């Protein structure tokens, strides 16, 4: 699942480099070969896939404690592991951006220093009203993740509900209802909520629901799920810009992910070693893929292939080449910036 998420994100940002003009959000305006670029332009929802995965993974030990009476997670250890695992590579990426950006752009150290401080506190989006961080543009999602990490032990108390059906119903109800929250503050002075966990809470809650299902029922493994999940993956990009059903998008995405994890063919495909390996390196790729895209396009692709800024198949080959080089660089990024800060396995 993490491989799918990072693939969607990298394709989306590759698309931005090769097709910088706004693309029609309404799929009824798409014709012919434009469908390829349209689907890549919707790859931004890979971020929401990551949110659901976080809801699943982060609350798993808490849910296991309340559902199966396993050892209670130590909050101090939990926060320490999250800090080492996430904060150190993140700050390295910020610092590299701070040191390099003034030499390749119009930004100065004086301009970037306040942004470095805001980013270090995971508050850049709030302080700068949602403006992307020039030091690390994808960092806004990490600010949302950190808010969830801090609140996860509290949200995990929902797993204390003893009856499985009531527990699942509560999680699903809260996820659907929280999907209406952005509509309540639209056109108000509370637009800053867009940059907080509140605006993205349905995805994390649905990840928690997947945790509940994983722990309290036998995991199915049915070929029929494949025939539902694959059409859903293809349909989701068409529904993302349909306002009347926007509150259902998180649920549809979670259903798609769940069936992908338990469909016989998709589960087999997603279990391939190279997919699992790249998925495991997704944090390194996420932190540094923007810089690699910039360097590869400017110094390699543009020297070899002339790209045309239009919605055609002409840019597809250089786009795929650029995205492929991002993934080929993943092992080196992982070994340098992520693996040294991963928690060591406990000795038996």
From TrEMBL:
Residues 1-331 form the Acyltransferase domain. The chain crosses the membrane at residues 42-67, 88-105, 146-162, 192-211, 274-296, 316-337. The keyword Phosphoprotein does not apply. Pfam families: Acyl_transf_3. Keywords: Membrane, Transmembrane, Transmembrane helix. The keyword Acetylation does not apply. It comes from the Bacteria. PANTHER family: ACETYLTRANSFERASE, ACYL_TRANSF_3 DOMAIN-CONTAINING PROTEIN. This is Acyltransferase 3 domain-containing protein. It comes from Rubritalea halochordaticola.
């Amino acid at each position: 699942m993490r491989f799918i998420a990072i693939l969607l994100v990298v394709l989306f940002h590759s698309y931005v480099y090769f097709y910088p003009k706004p693309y029609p959000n309404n799929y009824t305006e798409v014709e012919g070969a434009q469908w390829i670029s349209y689907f890549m332009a919707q790859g931004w929802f890979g971020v929401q896939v990551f949110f659901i995965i976080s809801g699943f993974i982060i609350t798993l030990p808490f849910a296991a404690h309340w559902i199966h009476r396993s050892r209670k997670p130590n909050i101090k250890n939990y926060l320490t592991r999250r800090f080492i695992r996430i904060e150190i590579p993140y700050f390295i990426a910020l610092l590299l951006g701070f040191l390099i950006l003034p030499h390749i752009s119009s930004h100065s150290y004086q301009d970037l220093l306040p942004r470095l401080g805001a980013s270090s506190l995971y508050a850049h989006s709030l302080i700068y009203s949602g403006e992307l961080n020039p030091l690390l543009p994808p960092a806004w999602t990490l600010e949302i993740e950190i808010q969830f990490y801090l609140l996860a032990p509290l949200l995990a108390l929902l797993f204390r509900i003893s009856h499985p059906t009531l527990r699942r119903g509560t999680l699903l109800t809260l996820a659907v209802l929280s999907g209406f929250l952005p509509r309540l503050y639209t056109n108000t002075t509370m637009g800053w909520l867009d940059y907080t966990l509140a605006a993205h809470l349905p995805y994390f809650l649905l990840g928690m629901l997947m945790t509940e299902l994983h722990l309290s029922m036998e995991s199915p493994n049915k070929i029929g799920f494949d025939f539902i999940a694959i059409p859903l993956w293809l349909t989701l990009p068409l529904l993302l810009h349909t306002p009347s059903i926007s509150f259902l998008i998180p649920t549809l995405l979670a259903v798609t992910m769940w069936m992908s994890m338990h469909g016989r063919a998709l589960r087999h495909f997603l279990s391939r070693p190279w997919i699992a390996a790249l998925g495991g390196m997704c944090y390194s790729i996420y932190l540094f893929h923007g810089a690699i895209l910039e360097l590869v396009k400017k110094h390699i692709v543009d020297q070899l292939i002339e790209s045309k800024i239009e919605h055609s198949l002409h840019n597809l080959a250089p786009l795929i080449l650029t995205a492929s080089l991002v993934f080929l660089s993943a092992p080196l990024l992982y070994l340098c910036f992520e693996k040294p800060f991963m928690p060591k396995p406990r000795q038996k």
